[in-house]
Specification:
single chain, about 130 residues, alpha+beta, 60s Ribosomal Protein L30, Chain: A, two-stranded antiparallel ribbon, 2 helices, 8 strands, about 30% strand
Length: about 130
């Protein structure tokens, strides 16, 4: 196994890694809407927070030498399921032609009281280890 870290995504807010490569897969920890330059939560509506979370997700995936086109599954955690349509709108900008498998659930609370968190599993192939 190999750990993946990048300064282009926020540092972990707990005892975990941004991502781990295991075999042919990259497991990306949930990304919340923290600006990696300031390490502060992006204030704003759900669309702003979703956009930042997906930018952070992309940064970690790219640090592993892969791309959003290699994502096989995403998990989306929402503070309020009423935000589902708005999240889908932004999510569709990042995953327009390639649509990975996905789950989306409402949770009672997320780290730093953000509105959204997104995690991913990425197929990187043996050659990228």
């Amino acid at each position: 196994m190999k750990t993946v870290n990048t300064k282009n995504a926020p540092a972990a807010v707990g005892p975990y890694s941004q991502a781990i490569i295991a075999g042919a897969f990259l497991f990306v920890s949930g990304q919340i809407p923290i600006d990696p330059k300031t390490q502060t939560v992006v204030n704003g509506q759900i669309k702003d927070q979703t956009h930042q979370s997906l930018q952070n997700l992309r940064a970690v995936i790219e640090a592993a030498g892969s791309s959003l086109g290699d994502v096989v599954r995403c998990g989306v955690f929402l503070k309020d399921m009423n935000d589902f349509a708005a999240v889908n709108e932004v999510y569709g900008e990042f995953f327009s032609t390639h649509k990975p498998a996905r789950s989306c659930v409402e949770v009672s609370r997320l780290p730093k009281d953000v509105l959204v968190e997104i995690e991913a599993i990425v197929y990187i192939g043996e050659e990228k280890k």
